[in-house]
Amino acid sequence: MLAFGVLFVAYAFARADDVELFNQSQLTLSRTSGLINTLVLITSSYFVVRGVSAIKQGLSDKCAHWLIGAFLLGGVFVGIKIAEFSAKFAADITMSTNNFYMFYLSLTFFHFMHVLMGMVILTFIILKVRRGGYGPQDYVGVETGASFWHMVDFLWIILFPLVYIIR
Amino acid sequence: MHNIHRVSNLFSTVIWLILVVLTVATYSIDLLGMSRKLTMLMILAITLLKSQMVANFFMGLSKTKTLWRGIMLGYFLIVGGLIALAYFHASH
Q1: Is the ipTM value over 0.85, yes or no?
Q2: What is the pTM of this model?
């Protein structure tokens, strides 16, 4: 989170040195993709909350279903981001193109890697839940994985307006 | 016990719906036709609200010590404050 915080602030101050370049480059991003991805991550976070609630009640099957839903939404997020990255690379846009794209690609790719890591963590938790490895007395593992997923959501909630919306 | 979980789930659903509404508001805030500075401040305020809702109600920090909530709030106030400072600096 500290690394992201430093990058967020660095982005804002780098923009201050070349507002026009940042504003023009920002217009090439799909705000709608950013909106959909934000809604997807918020909803997946909600699914994880419901999964934790279910395991606290001893409802393993229900917990697994909510977490699978969160995992699938993570997949939707990844798919949309890959489409966005592909479009940029197809247009010969790289981190070297300008300062805006350097920040845009590094911030979103760094976050993208965290989403993938979150999906790996969710997979392990889902498998353990299905084996009956968690219950009302032992759900710390589910809560820990859930916290990581919420952290990924928390960071995107800042990243989305900063990179896609604020001009 | 069952009722406690039902109320808790209902509460989570309400929080999720508020987060959805705030996200759409962030996306469409340009429609209000406010100045850029005011728009930026409004977006940061909405983002503060959203981030704290995720931290307190999704992560469950509202049930923990004040210190943990303070860390998450402090994180946003420092990062968000510096972002606002940079944007004001840019417009001069």
Answers
A1: yes
A2: 0.93
